[in-house]
């Protein structure tokens, strides 16, 4: 029991936090890649979609890198695994955008991330822990329910169509969600931000703040439909998904149930077409 | 009950869908039934979730109508009914949780107080109290440290096996009375040391256990994950009650110990009174016998002298006997009078004057040597002219009693050594020692031999006559002179009585 067995220094204060330099480096590199990808998409030679793939890969790599650095700090050598992951993400995104079986590379990104993270015990603080099967099933069910609800509501209210998506685009979208979209959101917003805020305060402030940040990230995503009802729906459903993922993260101590909830939700969402 | 609530929500949704009810249908209010059921049975989380589920299931009915008809009173009513079940579930569940938490807290307080009120041992009672606290607070670990010093305080922890660091937060709270709270013990700079963060924070709080007499200990609680304000407040309440309950236990134990000590003292005093009563009874018997013996002699010899004309030598011998027995009677009566004075608390009448010790010792030793020929009397004095300031009569009675005692408790004869010298260990005092090689006195009897009516039982001395007053009178007389008497003895080896009296230059 730490309260009785660990030494206590009432006057000790926390060392200055915030790896600002590292965050600036990550933001700078991400910005460079995004700019490069944008330029490539506009004027560059090569296959169509390569520039967009670089942009997507860079953004998600940047989100994962921020989550990594916020959790582990900037101990010597911090950049190596982060840069490796970023490179892997960009390459996987390129593969997904250019090669028919490329989305498979993106789908493997969670494994790459787990392997890279296994050598850094401090990343356990994110919620890199095993989860009970019940929590995992609950997460998947909650996400699937919200996704199904979205399908019903959108089709009944706005006349959206359900299921008119081809198998390959659907699989590619799922791979993107599994290896980039949901992965980076859970890693950063539930893993790094929510965990850190929860550690320093109560559940609700942490859950609301991390969910609000996640919503901002989605609302800034150019891929999100710009129709007002779509944005309102995104705020509503992604807010619920975010809060559900926070609750699952807190109850289970693991990111997995929230990750499965996100996958379940986006798995349904990808079936929807205007 | 959650399954039933889910089924009821699904049933209401099915009815709404199949019967094509509008957004303001009366049927929508049925969503409140499973919501309130869940809230009443499982609390705010379940009530809120079931209510939210009801709202979500109602949304596909409400939102298309909003899209079609815009914001009308019906559609607005429908929109409000999307959030109402969740709010109702949260509110009812919150009240239910509060009531349950309050009841659980009261139950825990009662259980702890009941357990602590009847402590077999404080340690066991504290361990059970710690477990009750852990369950009530939903904590991972609970420890109770009871005492004023962290090194000697009694510790009960759940799970067991906690070690206490003298510089820990618990010790800090015990020393200062200040509460220590941490949102995450592994990420708190006040708890130095590299431990690695766990996926869930470990919340902790140390609370002083206080009573009217001040701090009496510390309660330390650690939780894994979320801790509500209510739980924290409950911990503070429980610490207050535990402090009072522990103080009650300590007072009860102290009172019990006091009662036991009192009972022991009363029992000892009762036993002593019984002994005294028995001794007095025996004393009366002995006194009767002691008085009767010289009286019988006096009566017999006086009758002989009155009734017959005896030759002068026989008559003289009778008169000597009469005188001896009269002296014995006088000594017994004198002792009884002294005893009466002592028991009445009156001071003994003493007439101190200079007494030459050589003459007194020589006279008494010769007297006893004449009467007790089986014993070998020796006496020595350190130089001539050793003198005391004492009542000569009292000093004579003290010597006679000590010599009589030596003779009485060496029934097979032996050596009786009398010595006098300035006391080496007490300047200004003179020491008169009487030593025999008789039966001796057992160690457990030594503290009592100067008490009244006490006679040391020994098979060899059972026939010896005596009132059991001699040594107590010697002690009283010695103390009246400002002196004292001491004894050393070994069973089977003999005894040595050491009479210490003021020298001639000292007043008493």
CA radius of gyration of chain B is 47 Å
* Individual helix count of chain A: 11
Number of domains of chain A: 2
Radius of gyration of chain A: 19 Å
What's the shape of chain B? rod-shaped
What separation lies between the terminal Cα atoms of chain B? Answer: 96 Å
State the distance separating the first and last CA atoms of chain A: 57 Å
Cross-sheet strand order for the largest sheet of chain B = 2-1-5-4-3
Strand content of chain A: under 5%
- List segments of chain B where confidence is low: pLDDT < 50 over at least 5 consecutive residues: none
Low-confidence stretches of chain A: none
* Helicity level of chain B: 40-55%
The SS-based structural class of chain B is alpha+beta
Enumerate how many helices of chain B there are, as a single number: 11
Strand content of chain B: 15-25%
What would the principal axes of the Cα set say about the shape of chain A? globular
The main β sheet of chain A shows up as: 2 strands, antiparallel
**Overall average pLDDT of chain B:** 84
The overall pLDDT average of chain A reads: 86
The description of the largest β-sheet of chain B is: 5 strands, antiparallel
Give the fraction of residues assigned to helices of chain A: over 70%
Description:
The complex is a heterodimer of chains A (274) and B (508). By secondary structure, chain A is an all-alpha fold. Chain A has helices at residues 2-5, 20-43, 50-72, 79-98, 103-107, 109-117, 133-158, 167-200, 203-219, 228-252, 256-269; strands spanning 161-162, 272-273. Chain A is globular and about 65 Å long. Chain B is 55% helix and 16% strand. In chain B, strand 1 (141-146) and strand 2 (154-158) form a beta hairpin. In chain B, helix 2 (32-42) packs antiparallel against helix 3. The chains are: A mainly alpha (274), B alpha+beta (508). Chains A and B meet through helix 1, helix 7 and helix 8 of A and helix 3, strand 1, helix 6, strand 4 and strand 5 of B.
